[in-house]
Amino acid sequence: MSKEKSSKTLMVFGALIIIGVITTLVFLYLTKYNPHYWNDVSLSFGAVNLIGVCFLIYIKEIRIKEKWSEIPLVAKFIWWFIFVSNSYGFIDTYMTASIF
Fold first, then answer.
1. Each residue of 57-67: pLDDT tens digit?
2. Domain ranges of the chain
3. Which of 4, 59, 83, 86 has the fewest CB atoms within 10 Å, i.e. the most exposed one?
4. CB-count exposure of residue 81 (10 Å: 0-12, 13-18, 19+)
């Protein structure tokens, strides 16, 4: 993959994360006046977690590919920890906001 394509992809992921964080903060601010926005805060935070999971999959499957075996065990552990915690965060916030 060319550097130009990969830098555009990283910029898109960065923009999505920034938009998600700003949306979460706006909804969080609105809950001060109307507590009914709390589900929107949860869903927005869940979307940030989902974008994080997609970014981690992109890094592992597109950028690293066959070099995954060369990465130190500690870095793999950190990657898996972030991946699992973001996945759990998305599932938890989505289930909480949608069901309750």
1. 988 888 888 88
2. 3-99
3. 4
4. exposed
